[in-house]
Description:
It is built from eight helices and eleven strands. It has helices spanning about 15-25, 40-50, 60-70, 100-125, 145-150, 155-175, 200-210, 220-230; strands at about 5-10, 30-35, 50-55, 75-80, 95, 95-100, 140-145, 180-190, 190, 220, 240-245. This is NAD(P)-dependent dehydrogenase, short-chain alcohol dehydrogenase family.
Amino acid sequence: MELKGIAAIVTGGGSGLGAATAEALAAAGARVAVMDRNGEAARAVAARIGGTASLGDVTQEEDVAAALDAAQALGPLRLAISCAGIGTAKRIVGRDGPHPLDHFARVIAINLTGSFNLMRLAAARMATVEPDEEGERGMVLNTASIAAYEGQIGQVAYAASKGGIVAMTLPAARELARFGIRVNTIAPGLIETPLMDELPPEAREALGRLPLFPRRLGRAGEFADLVLAVARNRLLNGETIRLDGALRLSPQ
Length: 252
């Protein structure tokens, strides 16, 4: 896919992986709509890259539709990237009793249902875009996690949400192929994001020693680089790519 001049939407684009992805896309010539629950953060990123900002919740149809309207005003919508998500740590049976059901449902709603919500609404619009010389109209890229494969103790809700993203990648790619729309997923490992800033330095250092090579935390820019590579390579479709330095998570 040629990125110059296309319109893209990035959810969770106000910080972390989403912000890095929005910046990389803009640098490659795309016009980017940044959606985030934090309106101030979304506006700050949009101002830096010359894009547009939308305040919204990925689980709400009207919010995503409004953000897609903003994206389509920038050019032909060909990229929809889900980076919005939350982390959690709750045991199935903890000191306070069983895992709260509403907590589990919230993680599934934001991480999994939110990704599907963007995919379904964006794909419906991409299907009306003029195809390029190879018949491609666009691509949806979702963000999973290596926890989808090796979820740790306390990560049952998070792992289930990310596992669902991995599981829907191939069937979604198969279904949307007739429109010339690709679907891919990136499953990052330990990435240096604002969430990591809350940890003590010694904890961050210990985490950085876990990947086999390079022996450090991943960088948001490396995630963004992979997004661009996947978007540009038409043969990548229905695939989940681990981005983790050969890390395999232990039980805890």
